[in-house]
Specification:
InterPro entries: ARM-like, ARM-type_fold, DUF4062. The protein is mostly helical and 818 residues long. 61% of the residues lie in helices and 5% in strands. The radius of gyration is 36 Å and the shape is elongated.
Amino acid sequence: MYRKIVKVFLGSPGDLSPERTAASRVTQEINRNHADFWNVQIELVGWEDTVSRFGRAQSVINQDLDQCEYFVGMMWQRWGSPPGDETHPYSSGFEEEFQRSVERRAKTGTPEISLLFKVPEEGRMQDPGKELTKVLQFKKAVIDEKKILFQEFRDVPDFEVKFRSLLVNYVQRMILSERANEEKTEAGAKGETTVTKGVALEDHETHLFVEEAASFLREILSRNDPTNTVSAADIARLRLLGAAVRRGGNDTDTLGPHDANLIYAEQSQYTLTRGEISGLVTSGVAHLGSENVPLWGWLFQSQDGPEGELAWQTLIRDDALRAPLIKCFTKGRFPLKVEGLPLGREHLLQYWLDSDADDIKNATIEYLEYCGDPEDLKFLEPLFTSVNSSVSERAILAAIIIISKNNLDDAFDLIEKHAVSTIPTRVLNTLFGHPSQIRSERLEVCLSHRSADIRRHALRILFSRGQISGKLAAELIADNSPETRYEALKLLQRDGRVFTLEDAKKILVRTTRSPRGLGLLMGQTTTEGDEFYEKFERDHFMQKSRKDLEELTKEASVYEFEANYALYEKHYKELFSEIERNLDDVFSTEFNTRMENFRQKIGAENDILVRIEAQSPQIRKEICRRVLSIVCKHANASAVDLVRRIIDRDQPFFLVEAIEYLERHGAWEDAQRIADFAERKNYSKRGLLHFDSEEEKRAARAILKIGKDRIADVLSLNLSSEILAAIIEGMTNKQFSELSNSNILNFMNLQATGVRKAAALKATLSLTKKRNIDILKTYTKGDNYRYYNVIHWLDVAVNTPVSFAKSLAMREISNDDA
């Protein structure tokens, strides 16, 4: 088979010789790497190739130009020389080449035209001169006419990326178009149409719409009463077709959630074209964050496959869509290594990173963090010195994760070289997840790192090894991190230094002021380090003997119960009767005794007594909560009735020790108690905006353990939406698969978004594809109200390969995703 020759004309004035040389080099590279696979040879044509022939030089060039099917024009700061005498209509050879190509395209449809403008040198725009002024006027005319797309480049490497993209893009579209025409011709010869998965082949070279789309339009127009017989799904498809057909100057609309879901529900009624499938993919990508438009199934139906479709769209869509398109690569863990990938993996990654938009850069960095390998470090290293600190820090952190897979020492070298201040937990886990593999010398260097998290982790490991000197510990008690200050205090104590509680509080607790711009919290003063002072205080009392602690409890004020807590924890068994008695009377006897002692000291008429009495219920309730946690840590099953009584009476805030105790020693009657307990949050300490899903997950695990043999009863409990979602996620695949379709559909129709998503993800992990198909059909049929996030995730279960669907669902449930 003969190779097809594609002639590309390269037009430019004479100030772009390095770029013309680079264009020749890129063309040779593409031919060398792809000509055999494509069966296409690119021939680059330009004034360098014009042989000496009689006649006007530009006329000879024009003869070559007229044989080319693709015109690529380049301009920088020169307009060029006139191609003829004063009577000639054009002022430069480039102008003649460009206008000649435009006129031929208007008559014949070819050549395709692309323009590349090199950014002028700094300072030239202030005094552009005659040549550059003409270039700028030409560029403005191109912009105003909105008929021809152009790109800008800064230097030769940037030009190479963009020129390579233009050539590969053109050739691959040409190949796809020819293959589609061949398949249609073959199908016509057999008297039938070849359709795969309801996707029609394209033929935009001769028709605006392919036959399947045109037939749909004709059918609607032929109806007797189209105004009243057209369905909502028909209208949605009309909008999709309109969005799929676009030229320069059109708005870049994407299909909205309602229309996209209408088409999805009625897709069996239509034979969708390739362009429509791409449009539906675009809609899914545009609404990726909302998860309310089907996406993944369309991707696997696209003609180029998921990676090819996404890659093409990153090349042709607007910047606003490129970041979420790249995000899809990350979420799908696509390795970018399929054959025929547009531009190829390396050039595609470089094309993304060359974007001026930081969100596109950051999305690419995130992709490399999750899907990159050591060979990809060459893409990240140039970004380490980016003027945008967000980009540079993300690139460094991504490189650390990649490097640490093979060489932890090299990863630490990088973190030491670059002073990144904020280190995400995933990076800390990567660096410090295996402490035995880290040399002590390395950890000592980390103690001076800018990041408090790095310092804290290093200090903790060195402390466990006994390798922190007193001198260093003395320096660390001034650290910005309260945890580091706490660890340093403990080290100094070990070396014989004595700190009173007052000393420790001054070191550990600091007052801060909230930054501006936080609404109700703006300008408020808060303290940091209180929890570490409480730990120090507990350790302080735990070191005392029983006799000393009993003396301290006799002398303590109405507020001071720390000695009691230490006494009960150290001598729990011996003092259980006292503990039970105090809990049952809400520490009233103990509190009243202390109040009486205080009254004798300050006098019965003091206003302070009135204020303390008013606070007494809250004070004693918190004391009971602290003592309850001690009971739950140390008690066996014999204390279960006491624990239940205190929880039911006081309704205390969430206490993980109580949840764990009931999980160990509780019975079915405790399931609802645990669910209610987990709902009580101490917002006064954590803030109104605080939400910790781990508390709900911890409660769900306890309920599921208690009710492992009665799942139907578990699901009948009065549960918050957060705990119900955690229970669904925490069920075994076998437990979930034993639920009826009706029960599963009930979850998918609840108002709580988290419950619906949990049910759809668990269905993906637990049910057969056939069951998921049945559930999806039931969910989408009729006019019943349905939630789009359910369809988004059930589509994954039904229309993507099982291994892909389960991996994606597992990452979503475990929050192991970008």
